[in-house]
Design brief:
Length: about 450
């Protein structure tokens, strides 16, 4: 009987954590469980869940957030060997220059970085339902989530310290996070611009120089010392930190290799092979002065989205694993480690976007509990004409006056999400008249 009760308690805590894919603090868990456990008991139950390998935590003390345990990245034997090789000290790794045969030896639809069973597996999970609409229609259904997920994860892989919540606030409200460097904010905003360009021109874009150069220009905007370098092939030598690899230095050679790379990529029939080819070869060439990896990640997604496939948002990919995968390309021309990461990352990403087809979900307990308060704050924001980053401050100030401290953080997140999702077709939920909403929207 006692064990049954313990199992029930653990399951109730797990169900709460599952509702927060970007993590949840212990105070929020306690609030959503309506004070069912004391803080000490909740700590013990969370420790048990961690011991059972069902939950993991990040952060320390008051900033600790709990997550459902992510699937572990299991490397192939070849992947493990490559990782061990590139993790050796620099002085034990031989200098390597650009190997043109690694590019020119690739024959589209004859050479495959991804084996047949992997391509079939990815196709099966990448299109988990029979979708008959255009690529542009499919992307519109997932655009909001894709903008946040990919902007955050791609930036995170570059060392950006914005949290997922801070990224959402920046993209939805223009709220710049405190304590962040200007380049971090610019990096995320550039991802939004580049993704918007891709989505807005999806039917017209392809694997050609116009597309790749302009995606680079958008991603590199206001981040390079030389503004002329935006959207321009590299004209100067560049080094790669913590690597023995030396990329080509002659600008004419870079241009020739770039054009051949695009020709090969455009000839590839399988969209997953095409996406992975781009992830391998664009960074290997070091096509631009900087921002090469970001360009490869977005161009890889272009190929997937044009084929009505779930995007690759790099959810949960470790920065260290990703860099190791690229170092194996640079120094050893070995694709197996990055391939392991690519397949694992796509499996996770496809699961996230499968909910596009299944639009129903379990009701949010906190949202149901604070229906009255959410009605009041949403009406307050719209009726007062509060816009942009001022919404964040207004919600926080309102919550400090009306919501208990233990519930405040969770309430604020829900209120921000509800306001960001307002459109003419759902304003009746918050009893907002069309003319009032239109007036607020055009401010």
């Amino acid at each position: 009987m006692q064990q049954d009760r313990l199992d029930e308690e653990l399951e109730s805590i797990l169900s709460v954590i599952k509702q927060s894919p970007d993590g949840i603090k212990i105070g929020q868990i306690a609030s959503m469980l309506s004070g069912r456990f004391s803080k000490r008991t909740l700590f013990r139950r969370l420790a048990t869940l961690k011991e059972l390998n069902l939950v993991e935590s990040q952060g320390a003390r008051n900033s600790t957030r709990y997550f459902i345990k992510a699937g572990l990245l299991l490397l192939s034997d070849a992947g493990r060997k490559l990782q061990a090789d590139v993790q050796r000290p620099l002085f034990q790794r031989a200098p390597k220059s650009y190997n043109r045969d690694f590019l020119y030896g690739y024959q589209p639809n004859k050479t495959f970085y991804l084996p047949k069973n992997a391509r079939q597996h990815l196709k099966q999970i990448g299109r988990p339902f029979d979708y008959q609409g255009t690529a542009k229609t499919y992307v519109k259904r997932i655009l909001h989530r894709l903008l946040i997920d990919l902007s955050w994860n791609s930036s995170r892989l570059e060392g950006n310290t914005y949290s997922l919540l801070e990224t959402r606030r920046l993209l939805e409200y223009g709220a710049v996070a405190k304590g962040k460097q200007a380049f971090e904010t610019q990096m995320i905003l550039n991802h939004k611009d580049a993704l918007s360009f891709i989505v807005g021109s999806l039917d017209e874009l392809g694997l050609n120089s116009y597309t790749v150069l302009n995606v680079h220009a958008l991603l590199a905007n206001n981040l390079l010392k030389d503004p002329m370098a935006r959207g321009r092939l590299r004209q100067i030598p560049v080094g790669i930190a913590k690597s023995t690899y030396y990329s080509p230095e002659i600008s004419q050679s870079i241009e020739i290799y770039f054009e051949h790379l695009l020709h090969l990529a455009d000839e590839i029939h399988d969209p997953f092979e095409q996406a992975f080819f781009v992830l391998v070869q664009l960074p290997y060439l070091q096509t631009f002065e900087d921002v090469n990896k970001r360009v490869s990640r977005l161009i890889a997604n272009l190929t997937l989205l044009k084929n009505n496939l779930s995007p690759l948002s790099f959810i949960g990919v470790s920065q260290n694993d990703y860099i190791d995968g690229l170092l194996a390309i640079y120094e050893l021309n070995g694709v197996e480690l990055l391939r392991d990461i690519f397949i694992w990352a796509y499996e996770r990403s496809a699961q996230q976007y499968e909910v596009v087809q299944d639009t129903l979900q379990e009701p949010n307990l906190m949202q149901a509990r604070f229906r009255k308060e959410l009605l009041e704050i949403v009406q307050f924001i719209v009726s007062r004409g509060i816009r942009g980053a001022a919404i964040i401050q207004a919600i926080q100030e309102w919550a400090e006056r009306h919501i208990e401290a233990r519930d405040r953080e969770n309430f604020i997140e829900i209120a921000e999400r509800e306001i960001a999702s307002l459109h003419p077709g759902n304003i009746a939920v918050y009893r907002i008249k069309p003319e009032v909403f239109e007036g607020w929207k055009i401010l």
